[in-house]
């Protein structure tokens, strides 16, 4: 049977890392697409030349021609620009919206059956626009942010508790911005919720609050350190986890920016919610119950995303 085909739209920092990871894991044959002539070809050849040492047979092709993504099973979109220190993700909206239009049309015309994972920021508004521009079914278009934000939360928690990352679960919901909602009650160490761990004296409420805030600021922390761009290793790993769940029909329960149609009280927009990802794409949204405080934070986050969606409609009238 032919290997699955994975198209990576954008061959920058995340795109290159995605290609490397997809090849190392032999998830499928990789096509790297970018508008910068030479970049996708150079990265594809460089990674392919690591194949003999790593022992993978997956093929890699770099291209500036959308025709080469034809028939892709998965498309992961990182095309656009990242932020620099002093910028918010929302500052990227105008420039990246134009990129989403070109990418959406490219996917629509060449890979209409793909499962599409958008990474480009500001994430929730960009995935909303990408779905509109591509016209693909909403269950086949989603955004990656929650897996990354939850991984950051898990990393900070595991370090604080001095336990294995494997035993820490976490859910970060809402929009991928300053208003994201790390769900303390639904995050656990081996099933024991974080509030219980505070009661048990494993940490203090102040320390937990600081970890929640560090999680919210996780992207900005890396931007401040790198200075030339934003995080790319963990974002790529997170999207690969989602792509693998789809390709292997794993039915993984992962937070993703998914199209909500009344889910968690949200209608007609994309926002971070717990989902089940399998061969059907976003197969289910878990309509978890939020308490009053969580609901308030989630509503604030949804409102922030709604504002960005309205801004998109103001810029491109075909979206209105
Ligand atoms: N959702 C999330 O959790 C995260 C999102 N991001 C976002 O991901 C995006 C990509 O980040 P990086 O890979 O670090 O940026 P990068 O600048 O390294 O790569 C972006 C690539 O997109 C290409 N590009 C620009 N316009 C294009 C078009 N019309 N068609 C195809 N390719 C095009 C550029 O030539 C460049 O190679 C940024 O918007 C960033 O903010 C970054 C980290 C996490
Ligand atoms: O912070 C940024 O600009 C990139 C991003 O979304 C993240 O790393 O979470």
TrEMBL record:
A molecular function GO annotation: L-malate dehydrogenase (NAD+) activity
Would I find Electron transport among this entry's keywords? no
| Record-listed substrate binding positions | 83, 89, 121, 152
Binding sites annotated in the UniProt record for NAD(+): 10-15, 34, 96, 119-121
Indicate the residues that form the catalytic site: 176
Give the EC number(s) under which this enzyme is classified. 1.1.1.37
For this chain's UniProt record, which GO biological process terms are given? lactate metabolic process; tricarboxylic acid cycle
Lactate/malate dehydrogenase N-terminal domain residues: 5-143
Q: Which SUPFAM superfamilies match?
A: LDH C-terminal domain-like, NAD(P)-binding Rossmann-fold domains
Instruction: List the catalysed reactions.
Output: (S)-malate + NAD(+) = oxaloacetate + NADH + H(+)
Q: Which Pfam families did the record assign? A: Ldh_1_C, Ldh_1_N
Domain Lactate/malate dehydrogenase C-terminal intervals: 148-304
Q: Which UniProt keywords apply?
A: NAD, Oxidoreductase, Tricarboxylic acid cycle
Q: What does this protein do?
A: Catalyzes the reversible oxidation of malate to oxaloacetate.
What family is this protein classified in? Belongs to the LDH/MDH superfamily. MDH type 3 family.
Which PANTHER family is this protein grouped with?
A: L-2-HYDROXYCARBOXYLATE DEHYDROGENASE (NAD(P)(+)), L-LACTATE DEHYDROGENASE
NCBIfam families, per this entry?
A: MalateDH_bact, PRK06223.1
Its recorded name reads Malate dehydrogenase
Give the organism's phylogenetic lineage.
Bacteria, Pseudomonadati, Pseudomonadota, Alphaproteobacteria, Rhodobacterales
